[in-house]
Amino acid sequence: MNSRLMSIIRKEFIQIFRDTRTLIMVLIIPIMQLFLLGYSATNDVRNVPLAVLDQSRSTESRALLDAYRAADYFRIAYSVDSQAEIQDLIEAGKARAAVIIPPDYAQRLNDGNATVAFILDGSDPTSASTALSAAKLISQAHATGILSERFARTGMNLRVQPPVEVRTTVWYNPDLISAYFMIPGVIGMILYAIAAILTATSVVRERERGTIEQLIVTPIRPWELIVGKLMPYVILGFFNTLEVLAVGHWWFGMPIRGDLGLIILLSIVFLITGLGIGLFASTIANTQQEAMLTVWMTLLPSIFLSGFFFPLEAMPAVLRWISYLMPLRYYLVIIRSLLLKDVSLAMIQTDVIAMTLFAVGIMTAAALRFHKRLD
Amino acid sequence: MTDLLVNATNLHKSFGDNHAVDGVSLHVKPGEIYGLVGSDGAGKTTTMRLLVGALRPDEGEINVCGFDVSKQVEQARSQVGYLSQRFSLYEDLTVLENIRFFAEVRGLSQTEWLPRSLEILEFVGLGNFKDRRAGQLSGGMKQKLGLASALVTRPRLLLLDEPTTGVDPVTRQDFWQLVIKLVSAPALSVVEAQRADHPSTSDFAKSASSSAQDGVSVIISTPYMDEASRCHRVGFMKLGRIIAEDTPYNLRSRLAERVLELRGSPINTLRHVAHHDEDVEDVAAFGDKLHLRVKEGRAQAVIERLPAGITAQGAELIELRSIPPALEDVFIALSETNHD
Questions:
Q1: Fewer CB atoms near the end CB (10 Å): N or C, chain A?
Q2: DSSP secondary-structure letter at A123?
């Protein structure tokens, strides 16, 4: 192998390992982010505190409340005596939802036209909408139960059947665990951020400390310098990928259904995009801080417009168009598909091609801007 | 012109409106120490960077060691050792790791770099510090390390950009001794002589001596006149141009019989009196003495006239005599001349 290249790689590794603080950060940050996002960034709604105003105080009303209690979406936190109390509890944030059972509930249930009021704190739309559909489901199931029971009692022995029954099956992530959705995102974000930031700062540091001047006057060719400086970060990023996959798999129980070799190969392709962004940033920035900021400027839109947190389908058309410019978008589709679905390469080929084009394009643009001169 | 190690003609380099180098031509022979002197911003560093291809000239041609720098820059660089003004080695690497890195990227093989590096560290006096981090070296040792890593590939041309700025006088002296040794004999024989008691290195000493047989050429930039006077030839830069170029002797003789030394007290009165003499062009303080630069052929007249003026002002005259000009006198004179 090219000995100049090897020398640069060796030098870069010595520097990486001597900079213990940065090295530890590089190894620990992915795990921290994984735990943070794996646990906190979840849309799973559980144990919503519920206030109950049971004005009926009948067997029927208790049966309804038992139905709520049985599902773990809600936790009956308060039993109150007036509507004003409900208002207070919701305003204070102690209760997020409330059920009001009117005094004539039992009577009207017999007549077949009972109503129950369900009040929801909509200030957090995501959890509110989940809670709303949960409440509807619970109520409908309860109503169906009552009907069947009643028919049974009248001896009609008729099974109550809604005219259309929708049987839902959730594939790939049947329990709808958010972590399975988040972990691939974290892998993508980490590959991108670490690759870009480390590359940018390591190149700019040479300029900041004046060592670039000595490098320039060596017979090192620009491509050797680029490859030599990037290679250690490819290896580091590769290690980060394995690290996050391992923790995701063994700690969060995230399945790895696709071909591991393909996952790693495509992750490296994506990593090259991050390295390219970093190299590009290093040709613009003069200080390490500037380099960091430049990378951050590309990182934020990447995260928000790639479908990492927010579904692309829900975005306005303009943002959806912009999202096509985010390499992370393609990688997220690829990695989520490969981890959860075990799709074949053919199924994700459009995204693979788009991501590869971005990797090649960004790297080429950065390499063209990267001159081995001072001016 | 192939016998020139550096043959640069009519170099121009601007940064925006600033003409950092404005028509510099430079010719350096093998074995020559060429000094570039001039005040800060005169264009010395830019000239050096142009020679080594770190900057691309707007105009002009540069041939270094037989290679056209605009076309064969890597070949040219393989013959050049460059020590930049700012310490530009890796502070987080050890002395030996630094040398190894620069030795290897400049083409030394796995088997070559180690003996060569140890030898060169011994040569610059860093043999006992090879495992120390470069960031923990003193200023002078850093410069020696810089010199060592520039020398490790045995370049034919050494470009030293203000290598002794901010370095203590003893180290400056050491540094110059190294440079002079390098030039006065082929680099190898210096090392060989120093390490005569280590026969293990002699094989490899022989193998590389052919490329160094002409001796090394050095281009050194410096703001210090005592250093300039150690060079074989000196180019004085001002506003991006070399406004005077000659041997130190010839440069000094430009002011022959035109510099007077004046001692006495109070020195401010002496300065005042001298300044008002019509034949005195310039008065410069050198510690407790004044150097007067007088018009061509007027030295005797001033020596005869000035004492009376001094005593008339109530000052005391100790000595007034004609002295051989120092390079400093020449450069002060050159700095004041308007060449535009």
A1: N
A2: T
In chain A, residues with a C-beta closer than 8 Å to the C-beta of B160 are none
Mean predicted confidence (pLDDT) in A135-161: 76
Tell me the torsion sign for CA atoms A217, A222, A223, A225: positive
Six token digits for residue A163? 């005219």
Domain boundary assignment for chain A: 3-41+177-374, 48-153
A297 vs A315: CA distance, rounded Å = 20
Nearest-Cα residue of chain B relative to residue A209: B88
What residues of chain A lie within 8 A of the CB of B82, using their CB?
214, 217
pLDDT-based confidence at residue B73 (cuts at 50, 70, 90): confident
What ranges in chain B are assigned the alpha helix state H?
Answer: 44-51, 73-77, 95-105, 110-124, 139-151, 169-184, 187-194, 202-207, 225-228, 248-253, 267-275, 299-312, 327-336
CB B282 within 8 A of CB B325: no
Q: What is the pTM of this model?
A: 0.76
Question: A372 in helix, strand or coil?
Answer: coil
Among A169-183, A206-220, B91-105, the least confident range? A169-183
- Whether ipTM exceeds 0.85: no
Which residues does A84 contact at the CB level (< 8 Å), separation at least 6? Answer: none
Q: Are A215 and A222 in contact (CB under 8 A)?
A: no
Asked if the Cβ–Cβ distance from A218 to B106 is below 8 Å, we say yes
B85-to-B82, B99, B159, B216, B222 alpha-carbon distances in Å? 10, 18, 10, 20, 10
Average pLDDT over residues A189-193: 86
Mean of pLDDT values over A197-205: 91
